[in-house]
Amino acid sequence: MLIEGCKHELEITVPVEDLDRETERVIARLQAKVRIPGFRPGKAPAGIVRTRFAGELRQQVLESLVPKALDKRLEEEHLSLVGTPNIVDVHFEKGEPLKFKAQFEVAPEFELGEYRGITVHYSEPQVSDEDVAKRLEQIREGRAEYINIDPRPVEDGDYAVISLDSISGAAEPVHQEEMMVNVAGPDTMAAFNDALRGMTPGEEKDVEVEYPEDYGQEKLAGRKVTFRMHLKVIRRKELPEIGDEFAKDLGDYQNMDELRGAIRKAIFSEREHAAQQAAKNQLVEKLVEAHEFPVPEAYVDRQIEVQLESQLRELAGAGVDPKQFKNLDWAKLKEARREKATNEVRGSLLLGKIADREAIEVTQDELDREVQRIAREQREPVAATRKRLEEKGIIRRIVSGIRTEKTLSFLFEHARKEAAPE
Q1: Burial tier of 271 (Cβ tally within 10 Å: 0-12, 13-18, 19+)
Q2: Beta pairing, strands 224-238 & 145-148
Q3: Nearest-CA neighbor of 287 among 109, 107, 113, 110?
Q4: Do 396 and 301 share a structural domain?
Q5: Considering its fold, how many domains does the chain have in total?
Q6: Tell me: the pLDDT tens digits for 247-287?
Q7: Same domain assignment for residues 25 and 150
Q8: Structure confidence by residue, pLDDT tens digits, 53-94
Q9: Rounded to whole angstroms, how far apart are CA atoms 158 and 181?
Q10: What is the rounded CA–CA span in Å between residue 298 and residue 349?
């Protein structure tokens, strides 16, 4: 019986003869293992076992019969169970049929609407000479060298190498043995600039720094901290000269024209990927808007959990202590994500059905390439990576991800593309 959305309820009856047969089997198993004073192992009368171990007998009979009876009904009614069923209203009395209700969710059935020819905003990316020049300058900055210079008073533009120790104001003590500060640089706080100007190597000075509330380090954010600063050395930045030798140093390029061409190609590829990804996101949004059908709460709950786990991993990777989230209202946080998670699940189900319709599958070569990529990232043998991924069940997720991406590429290929409005 359909209750609502994907929720179903079945009333199931197990005949008396099946119940009695299973009860006798369980009693025989209990007779073989239980120890009752006055009886040899395995020789305790069934009646005594039934009385003394009534609770365990009932539990084992239910654990055996309920799943079998439910699976049989699901197969008869062609229902695909999602998650764990809730078994209620159990009637289990000697000499009477076993009766219970099973409440559960099923995978949704829905008809696919039109999915080819969806209109999305997309334009081929453009790469200007200015874009190439800017990227080239970034590469040049990345290969800069910092040269120690003879002691003199610090000036704007210098790179001051300092050690830093907090004296007061910080939530936790701060110590940095060596930190390089670009005096009057765009990312340097004014208090450090003011304190460093005119200092000479070997000199110490106390500096008071007022940090904004949104500062990246929690132990400093919103605080007025006093540091003792020791200037060790002054450096100047030297940038490599742009020319054919610079190009050759960067890789297999013979001259600057080849390097600029490679940079142009790389920027185009980055922008093309970003533009296509945005268009694919539009495709999924439009598919979801065009297909209204219920989705199992079990799927939605799992999607919310995946989102939260991913966010917590990112925060932990950024150095945020997970303990500070212990007082969060997790129920409220999950509820706030429910609509987004529901749409993501609906989108995933739609893409799966389209993949089935279009016979989109993952080849062994595609899977092998992804495993090899992961092995290179982890710097371990391919065979070891494959074994680990298989043991943890990650291979299935990888296959699903590749299939989803292939389906999105299929939809993008068959979409109507138009430029976004100015």
Answers
A1: middle
A2: antiparallel
A3: 113
A4: yes
A5: 4
A6: 999 989 999 999 999 999 999 999 999 999 999 999 999 99
A7: no
A8: 777 888 888 999 999 999 999 989 888 888 889 999 999 888
A9: 8
A10: 14
Domain that holds residue 121: 110-143+243-278
Please indicate, yes or no, whether residues 37 and 59 belong to a single structural domain of this protein: yes
In this structure, the answer to whether residues 203 and 169 fall within a common structural domain is yes
CB-based contacts of 391: which residues, under 8 Å, 6+ apart? Answer: none
β pairing state of 224-238 and 416-418: unpaired
Q: Is 107 helix (H, G, I), strand (E, B) or coil?
A: coil
Element (H or E) spanning 169, and its range? none
| CA 378/CA 386 separation, integer angstroms | 12
Prediction pTM value: 0.74
CA-closest candidate to residue 117, choices 410, 420, 319, 395: 410
| Cβ-based neighbours of 132, under 8 Å, separated by 6 or more | 260, 263, 264, 267
The CATH number assigned to the domain holding 373 equals 1.10.3120.10
Q: What is the pLDDT of residues 322-348, one digit of tens each?
A: 666 666 677 787 888 889 999 999 999
